[in-house]
Amino acid sequence: MNVNLGTPYIAILDRIMAGGYAGSRVEVIRQALLAYRKQLEEEEEVRLVNKGIKAEMRKIREGKVKLIPLEEAEKKYGLV
After folding, report:
1. Could you report the per-residue pLDDT of 11-68, keeping only the tens digit for each?
2. 3-class secondary-structure state, position 80
3. CA–CA separation, 75 vs 11, rounded Å?
4. How far is CA 23 from the centre of its chain?
5. Interhelix angle for 25-61 vs 7-18, to 10°?
6. Cα–Cα distance between 25 and 18 in angstroms, integer?
7. Residue 57 to residue 70: CA distance in whole angstroms
8. Is the per-residue pLDDT at 80 higher than 90?
9. What is the Cα–Cα distance from 63 to 67, expressed in whole angstroms?
10. C-alpha to C-alpha distances, 14 to 1, 3, 20, 33, nearest whole angstrom
């Protein structure tokens, strides 16, 4: 596969290589893609956690979940 990234991006690739972080432009791009994939996975995890929190908060507002004071929960579960 051939990709023309343009001068600014080639300069970035070359600076990364000059810094010793990679041995070739292809290696820099592979590392960047792996980092991007990891970032997307982390963002998806945050999105799912936030979705779960919103669902639980909705249950609390609707009175479907019984809340107890923190002190009571600590005693009940031996956390003090």
Report:
1. 999 999 999 999 999 999 999 999 999 999 999 999 999 999 999 999 999 999 989 9
2. coil
3. 61
4. 27
5. 100
6. 11
7. 17
8. no
9. 9
10. 19, 16, 10, 17
Separation CA 24–CA 16 (nearest Å): 9
This prediction's pTM? 0.70
CA distances from 38 to 27, 33, 50 (A): 17, 9, 18
Query: What 3 state SS string does 1-70 have?
Result: CCCCCCHHHHHHHHHHHHCCCCCCHHHHHHHHHHHHHHHHHHHHHHHHHHHHHHHHHHHHHCCCCCCCCH
The Cα 59–Cα 61 span in angstroms is 6
- Give the residue carrying structure tokens 């070739």: 24
What residues contact residue 21 under an 8 Å CB cut-off, 6+ apart? 28, 31
